[in-house]
Amino acid sequence: EGRYVINEVEARAVRLIFEMYSQGHSYGEIIDYLNSRGYRTKSGRPFGKNSLYEILRNKKYTGTYIFNRSAAKRDGRRNNHLSKSRDEIIEIPGAIPAIINYRP
Length: 104
What we know:
By secondary structure, the chain is an alpha+beta fold. It has helices at residues 8-22, 27-36, 49-57, and strands spanning 65-67, 70-72, 78-83, 90-92.
């Protein structure tokens, strides 16, 4: 229906990651904790440093919708690793349901 809906199973892992990080736990400690308890990434893989980094920097978990961030490759496909300049990116706080209410 074109709306964001919180997946509570995934949201538990996200909240746990932010909580542990805010308490000063290292990436390694968080990764070990999640993987030892059977948590997996969206793709079904064990957590690693890159997946934690991406979750902790993702503003959508605070309810901020980001539009027009990804720059296009030469062949026209989207490239999520290449971003446009800050003045081209549109951020709308409160536009989607928030999972957490703080940022690290």
